[in-house]
Amino acid sequence: MSKIRFTEPNREILARRDSIINDLTRLVDPAGLITSADECRAYETDALTAYRKMPLAVVLPKTTEEVSAVLKYCHDTGVKVVPRGAGTSLAGGAIPSEDAVVLGLSKMNRVLAVNYDDRFIRVEAGVTNLSVTAVVAENGFFYGPDPSSQLACTIGGNIANNSGGAHCLKYGVTTNNLLGVRMVLIDGSIIDLGGDYLDSAGLDLLGLVVGSEGQLGIVTEATLRILKSAEGARPVLFGFPSCEGAGKAVADVIAAGIIPVAIEYMDKAAIEICEAFAKAGYPLDVEALLIVEVEGSDAEMDATLADITAIARANGATTVRESRSAIETAAIWKGRKSAFGATGRVADYLCMDGTVPTGKLSYVLAEISKIVQRHGLRVANVFHAGDGNIHPLILYNANDPSQQSKAEAAGDDILRLCVEVGGCLTGEHGVGIEKRDLMGCQFDDADLAQQIRVRAAFDPRWLLNTDKVFPLDFRCQG
Amino acid sequence: MTDCYKPRDECGLSSAIKDAATAKMPLVVRGAGSKSAMGRPLGGYAMSLTTERMRGVSLYEPTELVIGALPGTPVSEIDRMLAKHNQMLPFEPMDHRVLFGTSAEPTIGGIVAGNVSGPRRIAVGACRDSLIGVRLVTGRGDVVKSGGRVMKNVTGLDLVKLNCGAWGTLGVLSEVIFKVLPKPARSLSVGLGGMNDTTAIAALTAALGSSFAVSAAAHIPASIGSDSTTIVRLEGSDGSVAYGARELAKLWRSFGRAELIEGDESANLWLRVRDAHWLAQPMDRSIWRLSLAPSKAPHVLADIRQKLGVRYFFDWGGGLVWLAVVDADDAGASVVREAMANTGGHATLVRASSEMRHRIDVFEPLPPAVLKLTQEIKKCFDPDRVLNFGRMYAGI
Question: Is pTM beyond 0.90 here?
Answer without folding.
Answer: yes
